[in-house]
Amino acid sequence: MRGLIVIAVLLMVGSAVALFAINYETRRIAGDVSRKEDALEKLRADIAVYKAERAHLSRPERIAPFARNLGLRPARQSQYQSPAGLLAGPDGRLGQGATP
Amino acid sequence: MRLVPRSSKRAQGATPVEARPVVVISPGLNHRARGRDQNGGQRKPRLRLRATLSLVAVGAGFMLIAGQLLRLASLHEDAPQAAISKPLATAFSRPDIVDRNGRLLANDVVIPSLYADPSVMLDIDEVAHELSAVIPSLSQAFIREAVQDRSRQFVWLKRGISPSTARAVHELGLPGLAFQYELKRAYPAGRLVGHTLGFVNVDNHGLAGIERFLDETNQTDPVYSPKLSHRKPVQLSLDLSVQHALHDVLGDAKRRYKAEAAAGVVIDVRTGEILAAVSTPGADPLVPQEAETPERADRLRSGVFELGSIFKLFTLADALERKAVTPDMSIDVTRPLVADGHVIRDPHPSPRPLTVSQVFTKSSNVGAGVLALSGGAAAQQAFLAKLGFDKPLRTEAGRGAFPQLPRRWNAIETVTVSYGHGLAVAPLQFAAAAVPIVNGGTRVPLTFFKRPAGWTNTGPRVVSRETVTAMRKMMRANVASKAGTGWRADVPGLDVGGKTGTAEIAVNGRYDPDAVISSFVGAFPMDEPRTLTLLSLFRPQPTRETGGKISAGVTAAPATARLIERIAPLLPTELLRKPAND
Q1: How confident is the model over B508-567, as pLDDT tens digits?
Q2: Helices (DSSP H) in chain A: which residue ranges?
Q3: Contact (Cβ atoms closer than 8 angstroms) between residue B245 and residue B567
Q4: Whether B159 contacts B110, CB under 8 Å
Q5: B108–chain A Cβ distance below 8 A for any pair
Q6: Which residue of B has its CA nearest to A48?
Q7: Residue tagged active-site, from B309, B363, B418, B536
Q8: Looking at chain A, which residue has its C-alpha nearest residue B240?
Q9: Which of B318, B335, B575 is CA-nearest to residue B437?
C-alpha cells in the first residue's frame, strides 16, 4: 500500500514537472508563432506596397510614351493573317509545298 | 414519504430520546442507517464508503480541471482578444481589385498615420514650426489648434502619410508625435478607372462605385489592427489595355474636335461584360470630391442626355419587329411631317421617297417619325420599356441616373422620341439597350464583373432573329457605303457597323444647333457582332479637319474607327479571323 502511495506521489510530481515544462514550451512556441505571424503580416504589407508600386509604374499611361519612343505602335489589323492566308503566303508561292 | 427519527453522527449508538421530525426522501438509505445503529456501528464498511466518496469527489475535481484544460486548449487563441477589442474596430480590410487579366486596379497598403499626444509635448511652437516644414499641408495654425488641449493624449494630425515623410517626422525627434499604422486604399491606375471604382472614406469603407458594392455585398472585413484582407481578388470585366485605348482615343477626339468632355464604353454583347468605360475628364479615387464636380462627373452613368439619332436604332427595330415594314419598303419623306401642329423637317430633305433601310443610313427624322407613328405612342413606350428604359440601369458600380421620359406621350413626343429627342438617358443605359439589337435579340444584364467560364445568358428575348439580321445589315450598310452617315467609322477587314447621332443640346429651353452631343454606336464584326462601342462627344467645335462641321459623322464616327482599329487586336482573337485584305 505504501509503495503504491509513493509511486503515486512520484508520478504526481513527475507529471507536474512535465506539465510545467509543456506549459512553458507552449508559451514559447505561441510567442514564436505570433512573432512569425507578425513578420508574415509585415511581409504581406511590404508585398502589397510593391504590388501597388509595380502596377503604378506599369500603368498604360506611363508605358505608352516609352513604347512610342522605342518606335512601337499598337498592333494593326493588317498585321494579322488567317491560317489559310498564311499557308497561301503573300503572293501564293510560299504555300505551294505546304499541306493544309 | 414518512417521518422517521433523526440519526446523526453524534447520536450513533444512543437511543434518540426526542426525535425531531425530518423529511427523508430516500427510504432505503434510512433503513441502512438504522441497521448500523442497531448493530452498534460497523466502522469498516463506513470507512470504505467514506474513502470511496472522497475518491469520487477528488476524481470529479480532477475531471473538472481536465475538462477545463481541454476546453481552454481547444478554444481559438484569438477569441478572447477579439472580444475585448471589438468596439475599437473602425477600419475595413478590402480585397484587391484586378482587371480581367489580373492587373491590379486597387489594393490595401499599410501606411503610417501621424498623431499627437499633447500631454507630453514640450514646446508647441517648436512642434508647429518644424512639423509644418516637413509636412507643408499641415499649417502651423492647424497644428497649434490641434494640440492646444494639454489634457488630451491622442489627436490625429495627418492620416495616411508616405513612409519617407514618416521617417522625416521621426527624425525631428520631437516628443509627443507618434505613428499608428493604418490600412489605406491604393489606386495604381489613378484616374483611368476612377469613375468605376468609386472611392473609400478614411476608415477604408466604400462610399461609391465598385468599392461601395464590395461593402454592400459583405466582401470586406472589419479589422482591429492594420491587417490585410485574405480574400481572393475581385476580378472586374474591365480590360486595362482596352480602357487605356478608349481613354486615349477619347482624349484625342476631345482635342481634335475641341469637345468639352467625352465618354465611351466597350461592351462584350454576348456576356454583357463592360470591357472599358471612360468618362473624361476622369476622377481620382483618392480625391473623392473630384467625382462630385460637374465637369468631372461620370457622364456615362450619372448624367442623362438627349442622345439624338442613335435612337433610330430602336425606332427601326421596333417597326421591323411589329412587321409594320420591311427594309425595302418605301417611305415618303419628301414633305415635312406634321404632328400635333408641330412641323418636323429633315435638315437635308430627300427629293425622293426613301426605303426603310435608307431612312436609317441617311438618318431621316421624318422617316423615323413616320415609322414611330405607324405603331403609336403606346407601342413605342412598350418597346422602350422592353429595352429597359422604364427604370435606371443598375450595375455593380451603382444605380445609374433615372431616364427622363416625356410626361405626356402624344404624337409629337412619339415623333421626337423616334429620333432621340424629348427623352434623356444615361449613355451607358443606351448602350445596354442597344446590346440586344446586335447580339441576336436577347437582353443581357451589363456587368463590371468578369463572368465565370461557361456563363450563359438567360435574359428575355426583345427582338426576333430576323429583326436582328435586318438591323445588322442596315448598320453595316450605314458604314460600308459612302452614302451612309457613318462611313468614316469603317475599319478595313473588321466589318464595322453602326449609327450616328448628333443631338442638339437644349439651352434655356431652345435647341442650340451649335451645341451638340455627337455620338456613334458601333458594333463589329457585323455578321455576328461580339463587341459594341458607344462614343459620345460633348459640345465639339467646328475645326478645319471636320470641314467646319460638328455632326457625329465627322467627329464620333472617325473616332470610333480609331478606337476599333486600336482595340480589335486586344480583344479575343476570333475577332481577327478576317484578314484585312479580303
Answers
A1: 888 888 899 999 999 999 999 999 999 999 999 999 999 999 999 999 999 999 999 999
A2: 2-57, 60-69, 83-88
A3: yes
A4: no
A5: yes
A6: B109
A7: B309
A8: A60
A9: B318
In 3D space, the residue among B85, B81, B86, B152 whose CA is nearest the CA of residue B115 turns out to be: B152
CB B512 within 8 A of CB B550: no
Q: What pLDDT is stored for residue A10 in this prediction? A: 96
Which pLDDT value is given to residue B513? 87
Give the model confidence (pLDDT) of B181-235 as tens digits: 889 999 999 899 999 999 999 889 999 999 999 999 999 999 888 889 999 999 9
CA distance A42 to chain B (A): 9
Q: Which residues in chain B are closer than 8 Å to A55, comparing Cβ atoms?
A: 103-105, 188-189
Please check whether residue B172 touches A, CB under 8 A.
no
Measured from the Cβ of residue B464, the count of other Cβ atoms closer than 10 Å reads 15
Instruction: Provide the shortest C-alpha distance from residue A97 to chain B (in Å).
Output: 22
Nearest CA in chain B to A60: B244
3 state SS of B497: strand
Q: Are the beta carbons of B441 and B458 closer than 8 angstroms?
A: no
- Tell whether A26 is within 8 A of chain B (Cβ): no
Grid cell locating B117? 499626444
Minimum CA–CA partner of A51 in chain B: B104
Q: Is B309 a catalytic residue?
A: yes
- Res B581 pLDDT > 50: no
State mean pLDDT over B489-494: 89
Instruction: Tell me which residue of B409, B388, B411, B384 sits closest to B399, measured CA to CA.
Output: B388
Residue B225's pLDDT is 84
DSSP letter at B570 equals G
pLDDT of residue B330 exceeding 50: yes
Q: Shortest CA distance to B150 belongs to which of B114, B171, B123?
A: B123
Q: pLDDT band at A80, cuts 50/70/90?
A: confident
Tell me, what's the pLDDT at B2? 47
Amino acid at site B246: L
Cβ–Cβ of B190/A78 closer than 8 Å? Answer: no
Q: Which strand (E) or helix (H) includes residue B427?
A: helix B427-439
Element (H, E) at B221: strand B221-223
Q: Is A77 in contact with B568 (Cβ distance < 8 A)?
A: yes
Q: Where are the alpha helices (DSSP H) in B105-193?
A: 124-134, 140-147, 163-172
Q: How far apart are CA B577 and CA B355, in angstroms?
A: 33
Contact (CB, 8 A) for B373 and B353: no
Given pLDDT bands bounded at 50, 70 and 90, which one contains residue B573?
low
Task: Kindly report whether the global pTM for this prediction surpasses the value 0.95.
Answer: no
**Element counts in chain B: helices (H) and strands (E):** 17, 22
Which of helix, strand or coil describes residue A10? helix
CB contact under 8 A, A81 and B248: no
B36-52 in b/e form (b: 16+ CB < 10 A) is bbeeeeeeeeeeeeeee
Provide ipTM, 2 decimals: 0.75
Contacts with B96 from chain A: Cβ below 8 Å: 51
